[in-house]
Amino acid sequence: ATFDVSMRFLLEDPWKRLQALRERIPNICFQMLLRASNAVGYTASGSDAMSGISSCTSATYSGPDSGSASVNATCTDVAGNVSAPKATTFEYDATPPSVSPSPARAADANDWYNHAVAVSFSGSDSVSGLAGCTSATYSGPDSGSASVSGSCTDKAGNTGSAPFGLKYDATPPAVTGETPDRQPDANGFYNHKLTITFAGSDATSGIASCDTPSYDKPNDATASLSGRCTDNAGNQSAPASFSFKYDSSPPKLSGLQVTSLDKAATLSWQASSDVAKVTVTRTRKRFLMSPPIVTC
Q1: Is residue 256's pLDDT more than 70?
Q2: Closest C-alpha to 232, from 265, 266, 209
Q3: 216: left (phi over 0), alpha (psi -120 to 50) or beta
């Protein structure tokens, strides 16, 4: 185990543990592998059969990152003899990996997402290599500046993170009004093509468009037109309707008859059910009375 694990997690003095191991395993050579993102402190130890060890050098390594870093150390005995340098090699990586986000799909409309989107994160690390990366899902709240974050960790324990920015609106717009292109033509009825413009509102992405349907048949005293609005995220509103009365057909007279008797003429006819008024117009000519003109 490393010094870091012994001190931080086992709450032990690593030197006491080594001494205890040495007492129980006197004839085995001990070695230790260090891999960490922090500076490494190294103190050499040695042995001398005659005068004994007086001191050994120590060193600290804090970079550069390398898969084969090393430090040199020497020991001096009581008689003043200095050992040959001893190199200790280890892996060192103090740099977090780079991180890149990747959404599971493209935006739904106009760079806006309108339902939950999964985001995976990938990374790279040139020294110790990647250990793993996280993933995340964004499903609200609605925002034009939303973000979701993820991270990658390398084999040295360094963690890098990156955000994925997005625009998100999952709420449909609302229809706020319906406007006809004119007032009724007569007595509350429209008698030729009518166009209705629908309007709406959307609090996040804004309105992209609203329907403008037209009506020109059939005749109906309870006619209606429906329309929706769409926001910039592609959400559609519930339909709204505009009711009106429509009649584009002129009234009709049939069975027109004229009966003349003693300088008088009697007119008779059959009128369609939608006739509101009949106008009879009589004109004279110089020598001959012309037929009456009947309109409705």
Answers
A1: yes
A2: 209
A3: alpha
